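Reopening this one. Same input as before:
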Amino acid sequence: MENLSEMKILSTFEALVRDSILIYGPHEKIEKDYEGYPIEFRICPSLLKKPPTVGALLGASFNKGRKWGPGSDMYCPDERLILAKINNTHDFALNLFCVDKPQFILLTLDSYKRQHQTLDDDDFVAALEVLRHLDNIYIIFNCSENGGCSRVHKHMQGLRGPPKAFELFTQQSGNGASKVPFKYFMQRFSQALPNISASDVLNAYGRLLESSRGVLGLSQADDTCPHNVILWKDTMIVIPRRKGHFEQASANAAGMLGSVWVAERSTVEDWMRLGPRIVLQELGVPYSGL
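Same output, byte for byte:
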């Protein structure tokens, strides 16, 4: 990734938007504070073209390119999307459906790896490599459908940070009642993540994941522990998840931290009707218990 500059990335991004390969368009922001929890709704009509759930099909125009490997449910309609290969384990690419300019995807070259599987050492090596070369990017991982994923080929995403509500998480413990409406587990490192070894991050992740299993009532025998991971600056946050959707409202890792992406204003109205804090408690684990 040494030769990958932000100018080069933006130039490629803009060219792919002009060529209608990459989907990015005008969007509206609605920012509010809900009982101390800030949320930014980003209404992006272009997301109507994005498959909303696992198994949903891409539009015919996106199926013109090759699949991202024989076991993949993702397509690569243009090789310019691929910005770099990392350690012969991951492709670092521009996301086909962007809410940020730019937005990244980091997906396994082994296209049979699945999104319900937990992160491993190769994943963290690749994620930390991205964080070393690009400032102001945070990494998210949505483990399983209940964690908010819509594609099963194992991948992480990179977005411009920080997430809207991030500071609330670092200002208090995740083990007691707080302005954060759901349980979470956090590791703050002594240095910025790019300076930490992947093995140390993996070990911390294992501890936080075990805590997540505990609040979800899962054992090691359970194959899947639905959860979200957020990597930003010197912090890793793991959020145990019960659901991917509550009625018409849904959220991935970014959404749980207050950066909610929707295709239509009606979805924001659904959040308002249900109550944002109630939605987040239903998607995660409320402090009052399961």
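So the earlier flakiness isn't reproducible anymore. For the record, The first strand starts at residue 28 and ends at 34.
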